[in-house]
Amino acid sequence: MKLSGRAVRLSIFVGEGDLWHHKPLYAEIVHRAHKAGMAGATVLRGLEGFGASSRIHTSHPFRLSEDLPLLIVIVDSGQRVDDFLPRLDDLDISGLVFRDEVDVIRYSAGRS
Amino acid sequence: MKLSGRAVRLSIFVGEGDLWHHKPLYAEIVHRAHKAGMAGATVLRGLEGFGASSRIHTSHPFRLSEDLPLLIVIVDSGQRVDDFLPRLDDLDISGLVFRDEVDVIRYSAGRS
Amino acid sequence: MKLSGRAVRLSIFVGEGDLWHHKPLYAEIVHRAHKAGMAGATVLRGLEGFGASSRIHTSHPFRLSEDLPLLIVIVDSGQRVDDFLPRLDDLDISGLVFRDEVDVIRYSAGRS
Fold it and tell me: Fewer C-beta within 10 Å: chain B N or C terminus?
């Protein structure tokens, strides 16, 4: 696999408690990205936040915190991101999904 | 609420220990973003870092870690981000604040 | 130090378990960024993900999780990022490294 030059960063916000067929939605998204051979995917956990649902989620002690926000970042070429996006259509993601362009400096594919 | 096409991602770095009127600064920023009806806000906690203050903060064991870096990401249209920014003026944020543009692919407002 | 207008955000993905001379690679990168006087650096810990190595790392209970993904974000002017990048050459970073441009709104250097 080779990734260089101009690439696309796909950002997907989901709730930690969002499920898809009884499994975490974020794990299903990462699984599909991996299966599709995307260059990289990382899930970052938010401490607090709100999204499309307009609720404030928080990890503060003494507050309910069952649906903290997660940010999934997936990176690959624009063409591969275009090809990947339809594979998420059936997941009914309720949070923000957006993309922007980045310049790849280094990517060492194939290292174990 | 509707968000589509070109949008702005606002990135705000603060310290976890930064206070505003005895409450966490990051929580006040998220609260104001929510009150202003912004499309989304998420607080990500850094493991280590430094910012305007030039100190290295860390969560390593056996090191003081009372002011870990937090990254707050807020997304909405350029116009709404422009309108929101002055509402942060009195908070005297000491870390980096920057913006960049993204292309919204999906945003399902109004879901509970 | 002054940072305003157009700047560059450098994003570096490494594994939490990646070492450089028996110390964590991410800590060495932050240390070098600090020594070089970069405006800011923050390490974000991923909950799950995969990168150049194509393995899925996870923090789920009952799965091995010794190499969770980390995202290091470093921000400064384009010129300073250009000057800084060669200082990472000997680290043999195996994950994705990319850059994109942002517009700095606020940066209060020198605050303690």
Answer: C
